[in-house]
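Amino Acid Chain and Its Fold in Token Form
===========================================
Purpose: to set a sequence beside its fold so the mapping can be learned.
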Amino acid sequence: MLTKFESKSARVKGLSFHPKRPWVLTSLHSGIIQLWDYRMKTLIDKFDEHDGPVRGIHFHNAQPLFVSGGDDYKIKVWNYKSRKCLFTLLGHLDYIRTTFFHHEYPWIISASDDQTIRIWNWQSRQCVCVMTGHNHYVMCAQFHPTDDLVVSASLDQTVRVWDISGLRKKNVYSPPDTIQSQIQRTTGTPDLFGQADAIVKHVLEGHDRGVNWATFHPTLPLIVTAADDRVVKLWRMNENKAWEVDTCRGHYNNVSCVIFHARQDLILSNGEDKSIRVWDMTKRVSINTFRRENDRFWILAVHPTLNLFAAGHDNGMIVFKLERERPVYAVVGNLVYYVKEKYLRRLEITTSKDVPLMQLRSGPRAPYYSMSYNPAENAIILTTRVPSQPDTSIYDLYTIPKDAGESSSSTQAPDAPEGRRSSGLNAVWVARNRFAVLDKNHVILIKNNKNEITKKIQLNNCDEIFYAGTGLLLIRENDHISLYDAQQKRSLASVRVGKAKYAIWSNDMNYLSLLAKHQLVICNRKLEQLCIIQENVPVKSGAWDDSGVFIYTTSNHIKYALINGDHGIIRTLDLPIYITKIKGNSVFCLDREVRPRLLTIDPTEFKFKLALINRKYDEVLHMVRTAKLVGQSIIAYLQKKGYPEVALHFVKDEKTRFGLALECGNIDIALEAARALDDKRCWEKLADIALLQGNHQVVEMAYQRTKNFDKLAFLYLITGNLEKLRKMMKIAEVRKDVSGQFQIAMLLGDVEERVKLLRQCNQKSLAYVMAATHGLDEQAEQLRESLDDKVPEIDPNAELISPPCPISQQESNWPLLAVSKGIFEGAGLVSNQPATTGPSLTANVPTKLAADVRYEDAATSGGDWADDEVQMELDEDDVGRSGINASQDEQGEGWGDTDLELPPDLEGVGATGGAGDEDDAGGYFVAPTKGQSVPQYWIRNSKLPVDHVLSASFESAMRLLHDQVGIVSFEEYKQIFLQIYSRSRTAFTAVGLKLESLVARLQVAYRLTTNEKFQEAVDNFRAILLSVPLLVVESGQDILQSQQLIEICKEYIIRLQMSMAKKDIAKDEKRSCELAAYFTHLQLQLVHKIMTLKSASVQAFKMKNYKVAASFAKRLLELGPTPDVAQQTRKILSVCEKNPVDEQPLNYDEYNPFDICAASYVLIYRGNPLARCPLSGAAYLPEFKGQLCRVIKATKMEM
């Protein structure tokens, strides 16, 4: 049993599936009716009007209605759209047990403890028939799916079959109809001599106790019943009689309900013995039992069209399937092999030709679990797995006949070829003549085509295997997926995924998608996780399209996923499908009926995003102009990815346009949107942005619209527009804003206006002082007379202060800030730059730790990254004698920018003293009692070394660093300690190092590396690495990034130190080539990885080590270098592949995992003893144990 949904509630007494939507109704013993979405696992609605338990519930098959019946003797008809009860039918005199709609007529049938069965017309809301005859409670009554029959079950130990054709004739119009019958039907007058409404056709007796349930078979003349005598009985009937066929025994308590399987010869029953049993209808034997520990079952329901069942118990209900419905298939090129109705079939996608290839042997009663196809041998392996009985799982090995599907007779019934069958949980091909089998003991067996064991692989926790290419397997162990080499019996890589169910490879085997129940993980070939996507509903299937986009399906959607983690919905689905192939905008798939289907999708959205990611701006421009990209999701995506100017072309909503225009600094569009919105807050935001850009004309308009007179006056002042400033003074006068008017008069230097304002405010003393000071004698005299004897004194040394006059009025806008061009203005330039499409070797490193350096910044230089100009003799058969020149321009200080703006914390800030002058203290000053300083609190309450450094307690900081990360030499920490301590004396708040500051310094170190300033770069990387133990982190993500920062710095320090050592041994070509080979295995940023592989391939080629050179060239091409580098590399590869031999063997095995000794620069292969630095993790030979680490020069190596 596969449980799809489970709910918790009071006892469930009734269940009903909606015929089309993924809904199920439950009626509870508490009187509540619940409507659930079993696909989304959510409660949609509750209906609570019954008084007491509700036992009967049923959806109408066409109208938005359902009917319920309860212990309050009421039948209620509900409309679930309007969420209310439409009407109530009254007539029963006791509990109502079941209620059902008729499949065609406007009838409801109800069974009651009043020993009657009633049929109601829900349109006229009247009872049209009362069926009596049972002499005990009627537990169930149902209509026949097609005929005019009713079956009823009662505690009187009988089952009755009723003929209601007379009721149909009286109540349903069916031409030709006589006038008399029409009058009779409309007036309700009885037919005194005609047929009765309902007559008993058969009485089925055989149960020893009361019968709880009876139901018709959907197509056959069969009835199945369940009773308190703990048995299930099967009955057959014809026009004349009905008889018992057989009895199914097995329940050990009352059987509550029983139903037929709609598509198979199965019967399902449940009972108070807390079990659900599945019976074979032909053999009448139990083939499966599902039990619950504490819950009795009361009701069963079957979906009218889908392979779904529901069972209600004491504490809720479950929705389940008996078996998985996923079809098994294998895709090879344009061919799809799949199994349908015990036949292996082949579908040609291009021509839609679908032919049966052969008939398969019969096996256990379970669908096939998986299929693996071998195109070389034209053979398939089919696995059959029984979930409840894993020990019975088997696989069949078939060789498909060569002429299968070719002859005309093959379309009828091709014979089954001889197949080999053995036990095993799963089987997949690993080579042309080898396949791997996971047996029941979880041992992997490698077998040949004759089904003979050639090798055994013992793994402790392996519970599933998947295909991974020739000689390789994907192994599922607990919550990990590992890439396993079956030949060498070792794990190559692993990734954390919770219970992956399917593994789907891209066409070129470069990318892998792992599907779990609610999770999708995309990895590269080395199982480095590129993205992870969570889903709320089960993930069903998927396939890669030719552009590297993964198209997958859930229960109700077709979706896409890009390798950077972007994902979205393409279209919705009514029923789940299983994708087999993607070609353009066509999705080839199989449905649950194993019917090939072709669906059309619109790939515009994910192609648009893919073009943005790959920087193919020509395609972006074309889609913007031609495609119909709409919706908030694409706008939010463009805004999130930093393309608000592109999003502007899709937005019609003015408010959204305004926000996007401000974000990309487009004042013109923002002004247009602000005018349309005419909102005060919009004008204020526009004024702020326009002021930042120096567009004071727009600022003036915005201030005028918002009537912000203060800011407007100041704007006129700084632009020298005195005329408008005087107008603002007049406006202030009209507004009676005395304070604003006086302020503007001061800015204008208008003394008379200020004197006038002071007089009006009755500030005559101030007015007199101002008039007398500024030489307004006449006004001063007048004010003096009005002041009587209280005349203030005038300072004879007062100086006239007047605002400076503007040199020239600024009419035009100020020189605008430079706004970077978007992809539309600069598309012609940007699109010419090559886009890196290869996978990043540091995909697991967050973006902010990635190198902000392009290959073009370094490609024009020689130095260590590229050898001197090399003339290579190529094979004369293909290209004659031609040279591959490693381009080299003159090099100054390096390839990239030399003007670097270093963060403030990199500057050497000296420690400043904070002591005051002792002479300032007076003789009578008494010092207060000395308390604890803030730094002392830090020392006492913190275990962070950085807090101790900030408080100048260097000794305790060194002790903590020694205890926590094993630092023994603090010479390298001297400058770091001084810089951190000085910051605590020069900042308002003393805070430790933040990750962001180290990331900024990391970018500087990357640039120094690119510019070939190796010693400076080593010092920078070492300082960053030593600073990591002093970081203050805030989240688990910061901890992860700090660990990655240590790994990056260690790899670069080893690489750069080896580069400097390589220059000292330039004459030893073999050793130099070995070091170049070792460089390629260090985890560097993509741009540096490309340079390293290019240098190594050229150097190996010069030494005529063609095998190694070819390996380097292939790895380089996988990274997607620039076109000129790619062209040179392909030439090297073409020469090397013709003679893959090394003239000078190197101490280097690229297939055997190794570490590089950071002191001697020799390889330490896996399994050999080594010593490591406790902080950086750098590896050393055992002879260097106890010495200082060469990477950080602060720790000693430990074994």
Remarks:
- Residues 415 and 1073 are 62 Å apart (CA to CA).
- The radius of gyration is 43 Å.
